[in-house]
Design brief:
The protein has 205 residues and is α+β, with helices and mostly antiparallel strands. The protein has helices at residues 52-113, 119-139; strands at 2-4, 7-9, 142-145, 157-163, 173-178, 180-183, 186-189, 191-196.
């Protein structure tokens, strides 16, 4: 302890910092960095989760999986195509077998007609063969449509011409030139028809 100017200065006890008397702000000691150095952000310097080799391996695996899927899909398409062709062949085979019977009936009718002298018997024989032939087509999904008096439908009918008619309303079928046909409910052929243009001019009706 020394006196100076009539005032006494007391030295701090040993082991206590010189600023022990200053108020505590709650902040820790400030870290001093050397000039030119910066603190690294959190996480910087850590190794990436996937290395370049890992990414290459994943890409190769995905590429290989894609190629396998494409090969499997191509085989599937070929198999479906073969199955479809087989179904068509079986359906055609069934129809041909049924038509063979009609053909043989025609052959028998031709041989018998050479000896037959009665036109009525020939005509009756042709009607029987036609009925059998029509049954075969109907059994395979063929249906005819179009009749006189029906409304004209451009989705089903082709109009060859329009004529005046006193008994058939306008835009209705006067005459069927060729029947139309459905095959399994789908239009196979349009009907060719003559369409009414209404009553003739000057008709009393």
């Amino acid at each position: 302890m020394k006196e100076e100017g009539g005032k006494k200065e007391q030295a701090a006890p040993a082991g206590e910092p010189e600023n022990a008397g200053e108020p505590n702000t709650g902040e820790g000691p400030t870290e001093t960095l050397e000039p030119g150095l910066k603190s690294a952000p959190a996480g910087e310097g850590e190794e990436p989760i996937d290395s370049l080799e890992d990414l290459k391996q994943q890409l190769e695996e995905q590429s290989d999986r894609y190629l396998r899927l494409m090969a499997e899909f191509d085989n599937f398409k070929k198999r479906v195509s073969r199955d479809y062709e087989r179904l068509v062949e079986l359906a055609s085979e069934k129809l041909i077998r049924e038509l063979l019977e009609v053909r043989e009936n025609f052959e028998r009718a031709i041989r018998s007609d050479e000896k037959c002298t009665d036109p009525k018997n020939i005509f009756d024989g042709m009607k029987l063969i036609f009925a059998k032939f029509n049954d075969v087509l109907t059994g395979n999904g063929l249906e005819s449509f179009a009749a006189a008096g029906e409304p004209f439908d451009p989705q089903l009918h082709d109009a060859l011409l329009k004529v005046p008619d006193a008994t058939i309303p306008e835009d209705h079928i006067v005459e069927v030139f060729e029947k139309g046909y459905y095959l399994k409910k789908r239009v196979l052929r349009h009907a060719k028809v003559i369409v009414s243009s209404g009553a003739p001019e000057g008709d009393s009706q």
